[in-house]
Amino acid sequence: MKPSNNKTTFARVTATAFAIAMGIAGWSNATAAVAGTKLPEGTRLMTAFELYTLYRDKTWQWPDGAGRMQNTDRRFSAWVDGTGGQSWAEGRWIVTDTGLLCFEAAWHATNGKFPAKTCFIHRIQDGTIYQKREAGGAWYVFRHAVAKQTDEAAKLIADDLVSQRLEVVKATLDAHKTE
Q1: What single string gives the DSSP state of each residue in 98-110?
Q2: CB-based contacts of 156: which residues, under 8 Å, 6+ apart?
Q3: Which residues, if any, are the signal sequence (predicted)?
Q4: What is the pTM of this model?
Q5: Beta-carbon neighbour count of residue 40 at 10 Å?
């Protein structure tokens, strides 16, 4: 695919980036319903070790895709297949002692390749984890102290739902590029 500098191509790539970023947010209807939770007094930032333990070798299931945080080299890979089209990503996941989990990856779609960085901040109190997307997201309960099936954290699973599907999405996008 030959890159173009026209405004239409830029708008399509920007729209795809937005759709992918929304997929990465991991937002479901249940999460949206509790968004805007008031952060209780006394919460503290989660440490890099706590975040690493929570996310390492896990797949985060999204409404229209999934992202995998591998322990080895902190590799991040993902696929999205929704109303905005198909895309896939490969990059790294990063955790900090300031409560941040970030995905830095190159996303690929039929209209191009672009870098994206998506971060979530985490705070904890008495076993309840609060999360919000940076920048401008709203706090919500990511995992209750006594975990609930409706917690967003319940979508973090050990099974690798990404690797096999990622190859299918890559092949499909490659086929569209050659058409």
Answers
A1: TSEEEEEEEEEET
A2: 54, 55, 58, 59, 60, 61
A3: 1-32
A4: 0.80
A5: 12
Rg of the chain (C-alpha set): 17
- Let me know: does 176 contact 110? Beta carbons within 8 Å: yes
Note the pLDDT tens digit of each residue in 111-149: 899 999 999 999 999 999 999 999 889 999 999 999 999
Domain extents for the chain? 7-178
Contact 142, 133 (CB under 8 A): no
CA distance 5 to 11: 10
Pick from 90, 91, 94, 101: which is nearest to 26 by CA? 101
107-130 burial code (b ≥16 CB/10 A, e <16)? bbbbbbebeeebbbbbbbeeebbb
CA angle 36, 154, 71 (to 5 degrees): 110
Nearest by Cα to 115 from 144, 145, 83, 91: 91
